Every structure is written in C-alpha cells, then in structure tokens.
C-alpha cells in the first residue's frame, strides 16, 4: 500500500512529480507507469529526461536530449530487446518503470519519459522540477515549491523529510543483478563514495531450498544486514532468503545504511554488479513553507497546518521547498550528483516512506557556458538543402537552400517556410550570437 506522494503545482493543478511520458514519432507507447514499490524490478529512477527510439520493431535505444542530462548514470548505449504486443510489461528500459507497447510499432518511432519533470503542452518543453542541471559551487539554485501528501486512509505521525546521499545499483546482467528490487528507506544518510566506480556486490554460498539462501559481500567483505520483516539483525549478511519477497536493509551504521532490497529468486550467473553512493545530499537544502532552509540530511519535520508537530491526516498535504547549493569547496567536475528525497512517517507503529532521486551537475562558469553553447547547438536550425539540378527529386546540402529535412519522414524535404521554428542563420556562430553568446565568449 502506498502512503506518500510528492506533488508539484503545474498548469493550475497539483501533479505527481514522479514522472510522465509522451509519444513523439508515431504512437508506440500504449501505457507506461512506475513499478509498484517492493515489486520485482522496482528501483528509484534518477530525475532527467529520457528519449527512446525504435531501431527495429523489437529493439530500442536510449539517448539524452539535453546536455543537462549528459552524465545521468541511467543513460546507456546499445539496444534493448522489447516485446510490442499490447500487453507485455517491458521493465528493461528505464529502471523502475514498466512500458507497454502497441503491436504496430515501426522503426523510427520515438517516445520520452521525464522523471522529476512535467511536460508543458502549451510551450512544448519539459518543465524540470528535481533535474536541476548544471550548478556552480557556492551558488543557490531556484527554489522549488513542492508538497508531500498522505495518500493513505490513515493519519501519519512523526513525519519527516530528508534529502540524503543517493544509492544506485548498476549491473552488467542488466536490471539489478542479484536484487529483485532496490531503493532507500528511513532517514539515515549513507556514506558517499570517493571512487566513482563504486564497489562490487557478490553473492556467495548459495544454498538451494524453499526458499534458497545466500550471503552478500561488498568488495569481498561481509556487511551486517537488517531483516525488516523479522525486525532483527543478520550478522555479516549471511543466509539471506532469495525469494524476491523478504525485505532487507543494510544495517544502521554501515556505509550503505538506508539501502533496502530483496534478493531475486533466480540469481544471475557470470557478470558484475556494483553499488554506488553519490554525495548529492551535501548540496540539497530543505525548508518548510514558512521556515528557513536546513541541510537535506538533517531534514525537516512535516506538519499539516493546524495539527500537532509531525502529523498529517489522511489525504492531508504539507508544502515544502527544495533547492540545490553545492559547497564552495566542491570540485567542478561536471559529473552527475544525485540526492535521495524521502518522506517518512508512522502509520500506527509501522514506518512508511517514499523515495525520489533528484539530480544536478557541478560546474564552473566556463563549464556552464559550454553547456549553454551545447544546448543552443542542439536547437540550431537543421541543415539547408536545394533540389539537385541534375537529378530531379534529389536534394543536396546548400547553406542558402530553401528546404529542410522533415524529421518525422527522413529523406523527405520541406520548404523552410513550412517550419516556423527554423530560422535563417548562416552559421552556428550567427545563431549563438543572436542568443547572447559572442566570439569573445568562446576560446
């Protein structure tokens, strides 16, 4: 049962900021939704915009559409095999999401999923909420006004909001390796990695049974695990149930505290699974609607107006504010930083929570300019073409041509006047200058 929802005011209504989708070329997607928490394949997706293209009717590739998502760790190269039959839930495209395709998909069809974003049909752009993009050390981002809502039928007590370092799992097996689901829970802050390659996860001493059991190691070392269902510590993570149901959490006080998982019934064979902890929590700040900002890992109390501290009634909402401010000493490496935003409360004596992962890039002023130029270049008018005088029906590149390629119908050409979004710039430098970037800005 779900207890929480994060909302963002958009278009005159409160919308779930978890994510949304849209078809771009053709209509390949029948429906797409987040996988229910705790179900097989559940994990928290990193905020960003993901564009997927069909190379054939059964294979899909993913790419970024904005430099702001350049280092998003969930973007991948290569193809993913999918089933397009109006019913199969494809869970191998965006972690934590299930996508059902229509049967009549074609090569060239495209769609997008935005996580922590809302699609603005009026302006034709994604409204970014928790995908902050490049941020300079020491400078404060725009504040995002958000809400946490209790969507259960019971009141919640001891409610708190934190924004900590974020854990993610990557596997050469695809999906989650030995985990059937993985997310963060509770309010504790895991220790950030110094090594961006993360640490290797291995499962040993597999013992067949009903269910089978195994031990978990990280970089070859045992780690204490908390059995959530039994409310007990499993020393050294030994004899964990591989049933896809039993919920475990890395024990409090360990490097990966708050990391919560189930082990899959069928463990993968050869391959590598790594676990990473991003230090994005050190840059996230939270505030109540009328309060001052506090560091994300310390968190704030969520209190519905007119209620005792930490209380939210069934269906009640609490507004809060979120911003990103990388510390002055942060290295401007342009690597993606991720933070884990979590609402936590008690339903009676049961802890209930929800996780959402936001993202940003750490940058210098020069790097921000580079990102801006890259973004402008990506929007630069398409190359011009003219009819080939020696071959009717064929078009050849021509800077002064009157035609542009129709993106929805490759190798067909439209007169540029039919596409009002495309200007008449003679070169990319003229285009950049018109958008406020001059030759003196560029080394």
Helix count equals 2
| Gyration radius, in Å | 24 Å
Question: Structural class of the secondary elements?
Answer: mainly beta
Described by its quaternary structure, the protein is single chain
Principal-axis shape equals globular
Helix content: under 10%
Mean pLDDT: 83
Strand content: 35-45%
Distance between the termini: 55 Å
Total strand count, please?
Answer: 34
Uncertain spans? 420-426, 438-443
Main sheet summary: 10 strands, mixed
Structure description:
- 5% of the residues lie in helices and 42% in strands.
- With 443 residues, the protein is mostly beta strands.
- The longest helix is centred in the last third of the chain and has 14 residues, at 365-378.
- The relative contact order is 0.16.
- The model is unreliable at 420-426 and 438-443 (pLDDT under 50).
Any descriptors?
single chain; 443 residues; mainly beta; 10-stranded mixed beta sheet; 6-stranded antiparallel beta sheet; 2 helices; 42% strand; globular; disordered C terminus
């Amino acid at each position: 049962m779900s207890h929480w929802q994060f909302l963002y005011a958009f278009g005159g209504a409160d919308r779930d900021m978890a994510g949304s989708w849209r078809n771009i070329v053709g209509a390949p997607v029948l429906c797409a939704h987040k996988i229910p928490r705790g179900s097989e394949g559940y994990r928290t997706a990193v905020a960003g915009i993901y564009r997927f293209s069909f190379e054939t009717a059964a294979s899909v590739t993913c790419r970024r559409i904005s430099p702001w998502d350049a280092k998003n760790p969930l973007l991948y190269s290569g193809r993913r095999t999918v089933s397009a039959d109006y019913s199969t839930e494809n869970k191998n495209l965006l972690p934590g999401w299930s996508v059902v395709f229509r049967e009549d998909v074609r090569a060239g069809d495209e769609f997008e999923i935005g996580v922590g974003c809302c699609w603005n049909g009026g302006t034709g752009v994604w409204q970014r909420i928790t995908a902050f993009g490049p941020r300079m050390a020491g400078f404060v981002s725009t504040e995002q006004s958000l809400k946490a809502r209790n969507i259960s039928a019971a009141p919640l007590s001891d409610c708190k909001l934190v924004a900590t370092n974020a854990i993610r799992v990557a596997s050469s097996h695809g999906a989650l390796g030995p985990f059937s689901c993985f997310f963060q829970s509770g309010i504790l802050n895991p220790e950030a990695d110094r090594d961006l390659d993360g640490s290797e996860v291995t499962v040993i001493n597999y013992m067949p049974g009903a269910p089978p059991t195994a031990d978990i190691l990280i970089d070859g070392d045992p780690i204490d695990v908390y059995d959530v269902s039994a409310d007990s510590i499993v020393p050294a993570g030994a004899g964990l149930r591989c049933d896809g149901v039993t919920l475990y959490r890395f024990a409090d006080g360990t490097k990966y505290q708050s990391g919560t998982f189930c082990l899959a019934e069928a463990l993968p064979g050869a391959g590598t699974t790594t676990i990473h902890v991003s230090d994005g929590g050190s840059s996230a700040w939270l505030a109540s609607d009328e309060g001052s900002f506090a560091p994300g890992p310390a968190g704030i109390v969520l209190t519905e107006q007119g209620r005792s501290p930490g209380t939210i009634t069934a269906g009640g909402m609490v507004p809060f504010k979120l911003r990103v401010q990388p510390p002055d000493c942060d290295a401007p490496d342009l690597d993606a930083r991720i933070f884990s935003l979590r609402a936590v409360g008690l339903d009676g004596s049961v802890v209930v929570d929800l996780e959402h992962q936001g993202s940003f890039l750490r940058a210098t002023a020069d790097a921000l300019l580079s990102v801006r130029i890259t973004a402008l270049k990506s929007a630069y008018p398409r190359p011009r073409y003219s009819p080939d005088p020696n071959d009717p029906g064929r078009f050849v590149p021509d800077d002064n041509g009157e035609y542009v390629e129709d993106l929805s119908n490759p190798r067909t050409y439209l007169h540029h006047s039919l596409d009002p979004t495309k200007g008449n710039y003679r070169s990319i430098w003229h285009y950049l200058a018109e958008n406020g970037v001059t030759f003196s800005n560029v080394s």
